[in-house]
Structures are given as structure tokens and as C-alpha cells.
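lol ok so funny story. i was supposed to be doing the assay writeup but got distracted and ended up predicting the structure for this chain instead. priorities right. anyway since i did it might as well share w the group, maybe its usefull for someone
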Amino acid sequence: MRARMTLFISDDQNRKPYGMTFTAASLRPELARIVAEDFLLSGDWEQTKRRILSTNALQARTPSSSVRMEREFRRRLQKLTTRQLEILATAPADSRVAVAWLAVLKNSPFIFEYVAENLRAKMESLDLTLRPSDYENFIHAKVAAHPELAALQPATLAKIRQVVRNMLREVGILGQNPKDATLQRPHLPPDLLAAITADDRTLLAGFLLPDHEIAWLSSTLSHSPAITYYPPPNLPPLGGGA
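and the output, tada:
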């Protein structure tokens, strides 16, 4: 059963084809940090690209893998604001994971819609178990607006599902145990919460926040940007399970 959503509405009729380049790299926040640090020093993505590739900074096994990974990380990080890049480059590990996930959400409508529409609705209806059928149902629901999905081979769809599932574990939406299929809200540090709200509050749906909480946060942070976030009554904490 789908919970009612109001802030985030997927406009499938006007969508471009989904890009699936995210399969080139998982979250790898420690590698994303390296790219972010270099760019913040130079302010030039082409210079950053050359240095990352010439030094094999992403620790790729082959030159072709290095090229694919660099291109994917660059595409993701180019979507971030300067403040979000600064958090990725300087913040503790848990914040880096959250920013790496944010970069994926901003760069991949496929992943954002899967989480914001399907997984968020499951949590709001208290169905906290992620099943293979959830992914299959999402694909089926999107085929009409995204016929490119119908052209994908079963092996490709399986790979996409596995990469997405791995990312969900990395960010904490799923537990680290491969057998753990329980959904939970990932950790969202206060500095990143403020940076997302200042950028585009609908992105918070990718962290499984419900619409009424996004609206409450937006209103609160707009009046007091430096406020420490405490959930209003009857809302689960940002870093805990639902």
C-alpha cells in the first residue's frame, strides 16, 4: 500500500531516459572525498580529472576502470553545492557517507525515485522489509514512462538491483548483514541537513524523511539556520531505525 506523498511528485511524463552509469562505482565515500578535496583546491574539474587519473588516486585495478570511476564520481560531485562538497572533504566519516549518498541521489533519478517513492512509502505504511518484489514492482511501474527499462537484459537488471542494494547498505538504509532486509532511516548529520534544505528540500525524501517532516524542517531551519535538529513529537530520530 502506498502512503500519500505531497512534496515529492515524480513527473514521469517529462522524464529523460534513466542513466545507469552509477553501476561504475558504489558510494565509496573515502574516494569521493579525494575527488572533492582536489576540486576544492583547484576549482577546475578538468584539472582534477587529470590529477586523479595520472596518480590513480581512485586505486583502480586497470586504466579503463580508473576512467569509468573518475567519470562517475565527477558526474556525481558536480551536482553538489560548494557547501556540500566542503562537508564531503572535511567532515567525519559518517557525514562523508551521507554526502556520497546525496551525490548519488542528485545524479540518478532512478535511485532517487526508487527510494523516495517506493521505500519511503513502505516505511510510512510500516512495511519495513525490503523484498525482491519491491524492485520488480518499481521497474514494472516505470516501464511505460521509461521504455528503456524494458530493453534491459535480466542480467543487467540484476546487476543494477545489486549495486543499489549495496549502496543502501553503505548509507545505512539496510543493515550491514547481507541477510538483513530491514529498512531504517540513515544517519543525516545536522550540517548536511542544513545544506540540503538550503539547496533542495525534496532531496530529503532520499533519506526516507516523510513529507510532513520535510515541511516542518524547512520551516524551522528557514527561521533558525543554526538550530540543532530535534524531531517533533512522534517522529523517529534521523539516525535511528523506524
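Confidence is low (pLDDT under 50) at residues 1-6, 226-242. Residues 21 and 58 are 17 Å apart (CA to CA).
back to the writeup now i swear
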